[in-house]
Structure formats: C-alpha cells, structure tokens
Design a protein that fits this description.
This protein is an all-alpha fold. It has helices spanning about 1-10, 15-25, 30-40, 50-55, 60-70, 75-85, 100-130, 135-145, 145-155, 160-175, 175-185, 195-215. It has one domain. The protein has twelve helices and no strands.
C-alpha cells in the first residue's frame, strides 16, 4: 500500500515528484505481523528473531537518508506542506463515488492476486524441475517468491547463518512477485520508476544481509 499511496498523492498533486520518489524508496517493507507469524516459525532455533527484526528495519534510516540526498528532498518539506494545508481556504475536491473506489480496489486486488498466482506457479516449476541437491535452489525461490523461498530455506541442510541471511534478504526484497505487484500499482504514474524502486530494494537487501552476517559472526 505504500507505493500505491505515494502514487496517489503524486497524481493528486499533494506531494512533489521528488517527495513521491523518496517515499517509494522507503516503502513496501515487510510487515512485522508477517515476520512474527511466518518467518519466526521457520527460523532455525539457534538464530534470534529479534536480530532478524533489527536487520530488517534498521537500514531504513540509512536508506531514507540516501534517498533524501539523491532526490534532493529538503528536511522541512513535510512541515511546510502541513503549513500550506493549514492556511488553505479552498474546498478540497470531493472523493470519488463508492463505485469508483470499489472498482479501483478490485482492480488492484485482481492484479496483485494474479501476480501471486503466476509466481507461485513459477516457483512450483522451479521446485519440480531443479535437483534437490542444488545449493542455490532455496535462494532462487526466494528471489522469485518470498514465502516459498523462506520455506525452502528452512527445510534445507545449509548452515543456520546462511539460512538466516537468506530469510532476511528474501523478506526485505520481497521477490520478483512483489516487484511486479508494485509495478502494477504505480505504472500509470509517469513520475515514478520501477527501476528506481528495484535499485533501492537491492540496496536494502544488501544492507540487511550484511548486517545480519556481521552481527551473527560477532557472537
């Protein structure tokens, strides 16, 4: 919903293009409920779930600082925007009708559900036709679809350090399925680029994985 909200705000001219790109760079992080309800149950017993949480969310500060610098978003932008809204006297446009909102929601749900099915099928093909002893198979599945990859990593015989790093990276990146889902909700907005989003997710993946490995090795 983060990328969709940023795209909507940009389309309604509530924020600038630079602000929308900044928000896109720091949005679509994995939910704590997903991490606690799914990933934690599959995490090897020797690994700390709190460490995974820290490694997933701590890089947001560095990512946000870098994105702010890259897109030249001033620190006082939000404050000034709120001040402009406070003194604004014109009547805002009325929201769309219920039918329009409903159809918009259904369209988004259909696109997201469609990509989930497509990449789940692709993951099944990779699982069925790749040898079980292939070292990279769990991580390839995590690159394709997050939940399938995490489950495969948990059932693998790899060292716990690699499993934990792989799970952290998969949760952060979201898989190609997540990339296509985000693309589906922002592609109508010319001010946002899915390529930029992918680059920021790769940076997030790198930071979280390296941080997890360093903290684990320091024990």
């Amino acid at each position: 919903m983060g990328p969709k909200t940023a795209a909507d705000f940009l389309a309604e001219k509530e924020i600038s293009t630079e602000e929308a790109r900044y928000l896109l760079a720091v949005s679509a992080w994995p939910s704590p409920m997903f991490l606690a309800g799914y990933l934690a149950a599959l995490l090897p017993a020797s690994l700390s779930f709190s460490r995974v949480l820290f490694c997933v969310y701590a890089p947001i500060f560095l990512t946000a600082a870098l994105a702010r610098a890259v897109y030249h978003v001033p620190k006082q932008t939000c404050k000034k925007q709120n001040q402009r809204q406070a003194v604004k006297t014109s009547v805002s446009a009325s929201p769309g009708s219920f039918d329009e909102i409903l159809m918009d929601c259904l369209e988004i749900m259909a696109k997201i559900g469609g990509y989930l099915m497509i990449f789940s099928i692709l993951s099944s093909f990779v699982t069925a036709f790749s040898p079980k002893e292939c070292f990279l198979r769990p991580y390839l599945l995590g690159l394709i679809e997050m939940t399938t990859g995490i489950r495969e990593m948990a059932s693998s015989c790899h060292p716990d350090l690699l499993i934990g790093a792989g799970m952290t990276g998969s949760a952060v990146f979201g898989g190609l399925s997540g990339i296509f889902q985000v693309s589906a909700v922002i592609k109508k907005n010319a001010g946002l680029s899915i390529r930029h989003y992918v680059l920021w997710k790769l940076l997030h993946l790198l930071l979280s994985t390296v941080l997890f490995i360093l903290l684990s090795l320091s024990d």
